[in-house]
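Can't paste images in this forum, so I'm doing it all in text. The chain is below; anyone willing to post the predicted structure tokens underneath?
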Amino acid sequence: MITFLCYPRCTTCQKAKKWLDDNAIAYDFRDIKLNNPTAQELSAWHTKSGLPTKKFFNTSGLLYKSMDLKTKLPTMTDEEQINLLATDGMLVKRPMVIGDDFVLVGFKESDWKEKLAK
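Text version of the structure:
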């Protein structure tokens, strides 16, 4: 079973949840604000995803902007970025789906269909 991480008040997360439900895809639900990913989880997901660490940041979030991370991230190591992400779920891009051999960050229906639809 996949793990679905989202922030319930996020409209994109709501669309993603509806898509999962409409496609009868079973998942474990995890509220990213109440149960923030740990640095260890983020590190494993980063490796599994093959994406650059910066893709895990919610660049449109208020916290990202107030911390001026657009300027700071380029000078940070992957480890520093992962440790920062682990401090607050609102920094993490959502929704996110974690499977046995893949990680999807953000909701792009075509990608989700390719990995999840039967």
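DSSP finds six helices and four strands in the chain. The beta strands are 2-6, 27-31, 96-98, 103-105.
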